[in-house]
Structures are given as structure tokens and as C-alpha cells.
Amino acid sequence: MPVTDVLVSDRGAFRADMARSARLLRAFRTEQAAPDAYYAGLGRDTACQLSQYLDLAGQVVADVGGGPGYFAREFRAASARVVCLDTDRGELAGLGRPEPGSVIGRPPKNRYGASLYPVSVAAALAWARSAQGAVLVDAMPRYLPGWTGPLLRVPVLREFLTWNLLLVLRRTGAVD
User: Fold this and answer.
1) What predicted TM-score, i.e. pTM, was given to this entire model?
2) Structural domains of the chain, with CATH
3) How far apart are CA 80 and CA 152, in angstroms?
4) 112-150: per-residue pLDDT in tens?
């Protein structure tokens, strides 16, 4: 298949392959010039990626740091019920009024460079494996091909090669 600048096509099931990684990297060049198209495409890619774990129809999806709602719109297009969480009202209203189901939190107490420090992939994996009320379903480098998943088992290497870690957790037990 030829590599194109289209993030997600209607080629069928989600594939975390080199062609996808190349499309994402190429599309990133358009983020500043055409943010609506870029983030809508990235949202479609994310919805497609999550759909490999379960049918999103009727599921509740939390879009943490959801900003103006590009991803939330794509999750809704897949018939998911979405809660978009962000601390910045301006970001939530980036596409007009905040999307239905949006929640505006307090500004973070931690600010990068002042009181927020980098989190390692090792720490994120340890947290996900020990999360109360959830089970870790999958962990992978978000934008890299699926075959790079085993890199997460290599202690120092994973910290350099995984700049965006995808953690898929499934709630367990009763909801309070």
C-alpha cells in the first residue's frame, strides 16, 4: 500500500504498521498550518486504535486533556459516550462552545519546570499494573508500529524510544 498524508483511511481494520507511523509523522507537518484537519485525523486514528480492544458503541470514554474536542467528536462518531476533561476552559471552547459532557477542572497544581517532573515509562507501567479497580489490557508506544511493543520490556531503551505511551486499562468490579 502506498504511504499517503491521510491519517486514517477506510482500508479496514486498524494496523499499527510502518505505513501508519509514516502517515502520522508526515501529517504532523500540517499541525500548525491546518490544526482542524490534523487533530480530526488524529482523533479518527485514536478511535480506530481503541476499537481494536472493544466496540466503542455505548461505551464511556474519558478523553483526558481533550482540549477543543477533536477526539471526543470521533469517539461520538463511533457511538461512544464521551466525557472530555480539561483544565483549560479556552482549550475546551477552541471549536466554539465546549462539547456536551465536557468537564472543566481546576488548573493543575503542578507546572512543568516548576513542580512537575518527567515521568518514566517504567513508572507509568508500574502505576498501570498496580491501579486499583482496573486491569492493564495493553501498553505500547502510541505512534510506533505494533511490532515495537516488546521495546517496553527493555529498561533503558524504552525511555528513549517511547515518547508517547499508550496504556489501555479496563475497569474491574462494581462502580461506586
Assistant:
1) 0.72
2) 29-117 (3.40.50.150), 118-171 (no CATH)
3) 29
4) 776 666 789 999 999 999 999 999 999 999 889 989 989
